[in-house]
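Risk mitigation, structural track. In case the binding assays with coenzyme A fail to produce interpretable data, a predicted complex structure has been prepared as a fallback.
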Amino acid sequence: MDIRQATEQDVDAIVAVHLAAFNGFFLTMLGPSFLRGLYRAFLHRQHGILRVAVSSENTIVGFAAGTSAPQLFFSQLRKDKWFSFLLRAIPGMLKNPVIVVKKLYYAAFYKGDRPASLSDVALLSSIAVSPDMAGKAVGKALLADYEQQVKAAELPALFLTTDKFGNDNVVAFYQRAGYQIESEFTQPDGRQMLRLIKYF
Ligand SMILES: CC(C)(COP(=O)(O)OP(=O)(O)OC[C@H]1O[C@@H](n2cnc3c(N)ncnc32)[C@H](O)[C@@H]1OP(=O)(O)O)[C@@H](O)C(=O)NCCC(=O)NCCS
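Fallback model:
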């Protein structure tokens, strides 16, 4: 297995891994078009990070996406692309109108949910491994590689947010890799979240 920078040709495979790994999640509800727009943003925009794990058969088996400057990245993305993302969200809105509209309102103000005390900190927005490849250390390798990208940008820490409840496996995955709970917060829809961080 190899881990490398993603390319435009990888975007559909990244979306497929996302759809399989994040079954039932909000971004998944927004559908493939929205996800393609989002992952293209991590790929092409300034401060975006998008890495892929590729099997020996040259298949994308996982990815890690995020940004080295969360506040800037999301505010610029919203400013430049809000209309395009709104159009891309329409299929999801038609299927799950109440949830999607509430969440899009939250997204309109989203700046990465960065820790209040830190300004220079990178964000891991999502990491996923194809379900048929889970438990084979692909996630661990992707996370270590992502950390290398953050260190190369000379940032002192990497954070992420994840569900507080019903999510022990994912929290265990991060804690084994040296992440600690920095704080907790509740999203406007009542979803309780943990903010995990690793200092370098
Ligand atoms: C979370 C995820 C990325 C882990 O990837 P993975 O390739 O299955 O995990 P790995 O095999 O690399 O495991 C790495 C370590 O985490 C631990 N771990 C992985 N899954 C675990 C689980 N379900 N329960 C407890 N520990 C777990 C492993 O035991 C391993 O520990 P070690 O370093 O001591 O050997 C993957 O399961 C996934 O894509 N989940 C769905 C998407 C998701 O929830 N992403 C995270 C939120 S953004």
